[in-house]
Structures are given as C-alpha cells and as structure tokens.
Amino acid sequence: MHGRRRELVREPSVDEKAQAKQRVEKYCALNTHVMTLRAQHEHTEDALAATRRLLELNTELHTVWNYRREIFAHLDGWQDTEKKQQMLELELGFLLEIIMKNIKSYWMWNHRTWALSQLPAPSWDGELKLVAKLLAVDARNFHGWDYRRFVVSKIRETSDDPAAVDR
After folding, report:
1. Got the DSSP string for 27-49?
2. Who wins on pLDDT, 16 or 165?
3. CA-CA distance, 76 to 83, in Å (whole number)?
4. Under DSSP, is residue 153 helix (H, G, I), strand (E, B) or coil?
C-alpha cells in the first residue's frame, strides 16, 4: 500500500515473544512511573527525563506532553530569559529527534508549536527551512503543512518586510 512492498508475516519465535513481552512490561512500568510523578506534582529534572524516555517510546501520549509543559513552567530558571532560551533549544533538539522517528505525531507538532511560542528568541527562518526539508520528504504530511502555516504567520507577525516569506 502507498508504494510499500508487501512483506510476508511470520510467526515470532519464542525468544522474540519473550523479548516483546519484556519491552511491554518495561513500557508499562515507565508509563506508571511517569503518571505517578504527575499525580504527585513532581516538577523536577528527573521527571522531565522520565517523560523524555516515555515519549521516545510513544509520541502519542498527549498527557505526557502536557506534563512536560507543566514541568518546564516549574523548573528553576524558567523565569530567566537566557536559561529559558537554553532549556527550550534543548527541547527543540529533542523534538527534532522525535520528528525523525515519527514525523506525523500530532502531539509532537503541538508541543513544538508551544516550545517556539515560549522561546524568547525563536529562529522562524530556521523553522521554515526545517519544515521545507520535511515536506520535501513527504509532501502529503498535513501536520507539516499546518506547522508551516504557523511558522509563516509568525514570520509575518515579526518581520518588517511583508514579503519575508516569499523569498
């Protein structure tokens, strides 16, 4: 389907089933851990690291993306413009890793939009170049097109040149 070759599916071996079961158990334990941290209103670097590990496994957990935003708002340095810039630039780097794994994750794009909106000095031109590369890979990615509209609107808001995006 959609230009992909059909592959024959074979029955997994006993070893492969055991490994899959271990991965699921680890995932469930991490998910439970993160949700417990959130319920306890834990807003620390350790909680941020735990959410990162969980989102690397599953990008579609909107509650965990929201929890990351809560954590950032409570971290030391969030009120300091320079530290906030550094924290969010690291977050954008993490989001770029996620893009490479799952370019069509709605919640990742939503979080990237939030991060850039919070960034004291965002690079809108850099974001436009990034989204152009991503759309060159998959021009049918509606998340990418929606994100591009967001970036273009921000460029138009912040630029003195009305034709800034048309370059």
Report:
1. HHHHHHHHHHHHHTT--SHHHHH
2. 16
3. 9
4. helix
Sign (positive/negative) of CA torsion 82, 64, 143, 93? positive
Asked if 58 and 51 touch (Cβ cutoff 8 Å), the reply is no
- Average pLDDT score over the chain: 90
C-alpha to C-alpha distance for 54 and 23, rounded to whole angstroms: 12
Say if residue 167's pLDDT is above 60.
no
Residues 1-28, mean pLDDT to the nearest whole number: 85
pLDDT for position 137: 82
Q: In angstroms, rounded to a whole number, what is the distance separating the alpha carbons of residues 159 and 124?
A: 10
- CA–CA dist 156, 165 (Å, integer): 7
Token reading at 55: 């989102």
Q: Tell me the three state secondary structure of residue 79.
A: coil
CB 127 within 8 A of CB 96: no
- Write out the two tokens for 144: 């990418």
